Structures are given as C-alpha cells and as structure tokens.
C-alpha cells in the first residue's frame, strides 16, 4: 500500500489521556511521515494541547465528542449509553473508511463490544481474539487469545490459529510460522477434549508453516513456536504472570546492585549495558494488542502506558494497514477449511 | 512431633536417578540428623552407591524393588502393571505407617494415581491438588492446583482454598493467610460462573485469615495474597510461563554482562551480589510440590532436578511431618463447612 494513510485515535482512553495520546501521536508522526491522524475527544481538553503541537496539528483532524467511556463502565452500558463517545467514533471512522485502523487505550471490554458491533465479524469467524507480541529467546512470537473469550470451543481455537498465522506472517514477516497450542503437557493424552479436537483439526489444516502440536507454559518465552494459541482465560493469566515475574526479577536485580559497595561500583561499569537490557525488556515495546477476527483493525493500548507505549501501539496499527492485513486474512479465511468435525466440536 | 522420623524415597524416579536421589538424601541428612530414610529401588543400582556413602547408609534401609515406572508410562498402565515399582512401594510405606511421607521425582501422573489409590482421599475432599511455593516480592506464597485437575468445579476450588490455607499456616507459618482466586480481572463480573460460585462460597467461609477475592496473573509475583487458588490447567501454565520468563530474563542478563568490556568489568565487581541473586532465584529452592487432599504425604520433586533440588523436596516432606500437617488439615476440614450451595455448584 502506498500513499498517505489515516489512523483514528481515541484521545480520551487511558490513565494519562489525553496528554499521552497526543504525545504518542507526535512520536509516531516522526516515524511515519505519511500518516494522518483523525483524533476523537473533547475539544476543550484536546484542542488547546494540540494547538501547541504545530507539526502534529498539521497532519491531524480533531473531531469533538461529548462522551467518554470510563474504565469501570460495563461493555453493555457503554454500548447503549455512549453513542457520542470518542472510542465509538474512532471505531466508526474505520467502518466508514475514513481511517485504516483505530487505536484506543480505554476500557478493553467496551472497545471489544463496540468493535464487534460496529465493524462486524469476518466471514466464518465466530469470536474475535486479542493478540499481542511476546518476547522470546529467539525474538518475538504472536500470542492469542489474551482475554476476549474466557471459554473457547475447538473451532474458536482453530480460528485463532489461522488468524495468528496470518498476523505473524503479515506483521512479523515470518514466512512459515510454527503454531503451538498451550496445554499442561506435550503428551498426546494430557489436557481435555476441546484441546484434542483442536489439535486434530490443526494437524489437518493446510496452513503456511507447520503445526507444532501442544506446548507448555515455559515454551512461550523459549520461542518454541511463532504463534502461541490458547483460550482467553489461560492466555490472559499466563501473559500477566510472565509480566509479574519479569517485574519481580527486575526488582531483585535493583536490590542486588544496591546490596554492597562492590555491586554499586559494578553497576557503574555495567550501566550502559543495563540500560540497553532495560530497553529490550521494556513492556512499552510490546504495547499494542490487536483485535483479530473483525472487519476492520482495532488496536488496544495498555491503559497505564505513556506516550512511548502509545506510539508503539500506533506503530502496530500502521504496520497492519501498510501490510494490507485485512485483505490477507480475508483471502486466507476463504481458502482454508477450518471446520472442526461435528463429533469433536462438542468437546 | 519429637523423636526420629522416617521419609520414604523412590530411588528410581527422575532424570538423574538414582544418583541424585542418594546425593540429595545425603544433603538432607546433614540438615536433619533426626531423619531416617527408607529407600526403594533396584538393589543392583542403588546398593553399590549407598555402600560408598557410609553416613547415609547408617540411617537408611534399602528395600529392593524390581519395577520402575517410566516417564512415558500412562498412569493407568503404571497402576495395573507396576505392583513392585519403587514409586508404589514408597507410597505404600506411608500408608502402612513405616514412613511419615514419601518423595519421588518420577512420573507425576503415575505418582498422583498411586497416591490416590493407596493413600485414599481425606474425608469430604473430592479431588487432590498439587501445591507448591511461589517466590514473590513479599517472600513466598502457596499456589495450587498446579496440574492435578485440568477442569475444576466451584467445590474443588473451595477445597483447594481450605487445603492451601492449612498448608500455608503449617509450613510457611503465616498466621492469617490471605487467599485469592485467579481470574482475568479483579472486577466482580469478569470470568465465568464456576469462579463466581467459588468466590461467593469463599466469602462466607470462616477460615483463619481472609479471602481477598479475585486476583490477576501479575498478582502472583507481587505477593498480593499468601494462597493463590486456581484450576490445574491455569495453574500449571501460569507457573511454567513464570519459570520461562525468569529464565529468559536470566539469559538476557548473561548476554548483557558479556556485551562490552565495561559490562564485563562491572560483572567482576558485582559477582558476589549476582551469585546471591542467582541463589535466591534458583528454581531448586522451590523444588518439592505437595499432593494435598490425601490421607498421607506425597512430595513430588521436579524430574530434572539435581541433588540440591531433591534435598529441598525432602525438606518439604520433613517440614510437613514435623508440623503434623495431616492432623491439622483433618481437624480443619472437620470444622469448616465447605459446601457450595447446589444452585451454584453447577457452574
């Protein structure tokens, strides 16, 4: 895809909105000179800030919306009540073709519900999934579902594998991704029927790359596969457990460097290398989860992120539009028979 | 409990058995001069090694068994086929009162199946759970189930919370443990019906300590609660995902210290502090998972561990016997009404 492209932003979502949204957009603007922004939010809060950011303002159209979806709002209430919410307007801009993708750091459940309602599902996909990158010993993998579906059928898991496969090829550029299904053991008879049915079907699917089979929790960080498939409950807990452990080790490390004079001197020497390590393991690098399975591109930024993290979420949206993700997933879905045999789908 | 106590060991389970079992027992012997060992295994493989370990031999009775349960064996096959397996004999020694607890690094599924069959369940407990310690920012927490039950009812989760509470008070010495139930969000309406039913019941239970409510994956390492309750599928994946991430950060850290001459010099200064950090995060420290809910104490060591890790698993067994864990859990189970109301238990 060539020429200019437009990304819609929800200026009001996130703990530090709208400031970090505008600053994040400004960072992304420097990296993507061919991107325009369509920003939705309260004129009184966003306008004055934008006026001070001349260059960002040149590539931005600000659209005033009265409503804001709060973090505590239930998805159903947000759907009914907030017709003029910045989040909803951003998703509608994607539906109407005024933007190639939208990014919001707001309420995840509400953003998912609005995206489903406004964008609709891709043909043959029953449930959307939340996907994101996961750092591994070998680089990066794609992981899904991270929380959209707490309970999944075999068919859902197969759909996630197909969508994750396309996503991995499109955005990470992995030519033949290996896909793995999370289980409590790699043995054939561990787990439960839903997993066995999904595995059997994935063994027969003719996807680019290969189906590795079952993987375990520690295979995530090992980089055993490129696409990590699981239900939204397990995926959400495993991702957050990993984040918590990374944070724990980082605190231990800080304490270690402060534990003696020698260690403090050691830190002075190793400081630059340690800063690089911190950059590498910076959770903001992996900010930007994608809602897959919809007729349009919605990227969810972490609510607590800052401008750097939000700019990364915009990067993900730009990449997906540039690589023509939607067309590729539509054509793959049309060409692959993903149906789980009826006797197994019940599992 | 005073006087000498006996621990039964399966000499044949684990990747480095029987060598690491004997060496691990020898390490544990130094820490616990009042412990005798009852070791089950092949005389031809264990006997000559034991002959060289004079002090261990003085406190050990070796019982020859012909059979060994392999790692690939299905639990059902191990139950039927291996009547004279070292693993089974070790569990039977607990049932017959010849040992206070048994430790094995062998096939987890087979060890669980044998423990259930031989030791039987505690009154009112439907399913056993695998519990272990988890390192946190605040110290250590207890986590269960780590893989015995891939699908759990609300009643199972409530039982796990009660058993984890007793275990935490007995072995960690936490007077009033806080208990949390893993979910995909701390909000009341996230998750699914089984979790809501378990939460409602736990809110009403009169346990020592308090029920914190729902926790998320990152609360595990934060140490938000002392007892982390979840189903065996989620628990297994989350624990292994955390282990994988800790390993990933550790590899990143090694690379960082090698990345420049300055960093290498820094490492020389910080080396002692780093060694302490490595000891603190050593997975062998947390080796020794406990099967809770049985009429006897079975401790499962990681199959790939070495003598240091196996000795830690023996420590856990010794602690449980010394602290009279079985009597305490029996009395707690008798005094607490754990029943989930029928309308909810269906969830």
From TrEMBL, chains A, B:
Gene3D superfamilies: Isopropylmalate Dehydrogenase
GO molecular function: phosphate:acyl-[acyl carrier protein] acyltransferase activity
Record's protein name: Phosphate acyltransferase
Purpose of the protein: Catalyzes the reversible formation of acyl-phosphate (acyl-PO(4)) from acyl-[acyl-carrier-protein] (acyl-ACP). This enzyme utilizes acyl-ACP as fatty acyl donor, but not acyl-CoA.
Gene expressing this chain: plsX
Catalytic activity: a fatty acyl-[ACP] + phosphate = an acyl phosphate + holo-[ACP]
One Gene Ontology CC term in the entry: cytoplasm
Family that this chain belongs to: Belongs to the PlsX family.
Broad class of where this protein is predominantly found: cytoplasm
Organism of provenance: Limimonas halophila
PANTHER family: FATTY ACID/PHOSPHOLIPID SYNTHESIS PROTEIN PLSX, PHOSPHATE ACYLTRANSFERASE
SUPFAM superfamilies, A to Z: Isocitrate/Isopropylmalate dehydrogenase-like
Cited InterPro entries: FA_synthesis (IPR003664), Phospholipid_synth_PlsX-like (IPR012281)
GO BP terms: fatty acid biosynthetic process; phospholipid biosynthetic process
Broad class of enzyme this protein falls into: transferase
EC code(s) of this entry: 2.3.1.274
The keyword Glycosyltransferase appears for this protein: no
Keyword match Lipid metabolism: yes
Biological or metabolic pathway of the protein: Lipid metabolism; phospholipid metabolism
Subunit annotation: Homodimer. Probably interacts with PlsY.
Keywords assigned by UniProt, alphabetized: Acyltransferase, Cytoplasm, Lipid biosynthesis, Lipid metabolism, Phospholipid biosynthesis, Phospholipid metabolism, Transferase
């Amino acid at each position: 895809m060539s020429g200019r492209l437009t990304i819609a932003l929800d200026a009001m979502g996130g703990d530090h909105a709208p400031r970090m949204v505008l600053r994040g957009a400004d960072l992304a603007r420097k990296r993507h000179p061919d991107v325009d922004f369509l920003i939705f939010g309260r004129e009184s809060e966003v306008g004055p800030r934008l006026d001070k950011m001349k260059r960002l303002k040149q590539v931005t159209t600000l659209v005033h919306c009265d409503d804001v979806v709060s973090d505590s709002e239930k998805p159903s209430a947000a759907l009914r009540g907030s017709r003029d919410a910045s989040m909803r307007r951003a998703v509608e801009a994607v539906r109407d073709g005024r933007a190639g993708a939208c990014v919001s750091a707001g309420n995840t459940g509400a953003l998912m519900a609005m995206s489903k309602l406004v964008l609709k599902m891709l043909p043959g996909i029953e449930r959307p999934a939340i996907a994101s990158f996961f750092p591994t010993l070998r680089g990066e993998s794609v992981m899904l579902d991270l929380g959209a579906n707490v309970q999944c059928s075999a068919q859902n898991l197969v759909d996630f594998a197909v969508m994750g496969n396309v996503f991995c090829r499109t955005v990470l550029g992995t030519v033949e991704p290996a896909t793995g299904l999370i289980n409590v053991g790699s043995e054939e008879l561990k787990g439960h029927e839903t997993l066995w049915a999904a595995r059997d079907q994935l063994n027969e699917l003719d996807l680019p790359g290969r189906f590795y089979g079952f993987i375990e929790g520690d295979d995530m960080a090992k980089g055993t596969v490129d696409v990590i498939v699981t239900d939204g409950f397990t995926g959400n807990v495993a991702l957050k457990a990993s984040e918590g452990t990374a944070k724990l080790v980082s605190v231990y490390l800080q304490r270690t460097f402060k534990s003696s004079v020698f260690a403090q001197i050691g830190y002075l020497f190793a400081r630059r290398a340690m800063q690089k390590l911190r950059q590498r393991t910076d959770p903001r690098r992996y900010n930007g989860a994608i809602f897959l399975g919809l007729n349009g591109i919605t990227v969810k930024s972490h609510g607590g992120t800052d401008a750097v993290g939000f700019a990364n979420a915009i990067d993900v949206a730009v990449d997906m539009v540039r690589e023509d993700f939607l067309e590729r997933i539509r054509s793959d879905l049309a060409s692959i028979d993903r149906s789980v045999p009826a006797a197994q789908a019940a599992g």
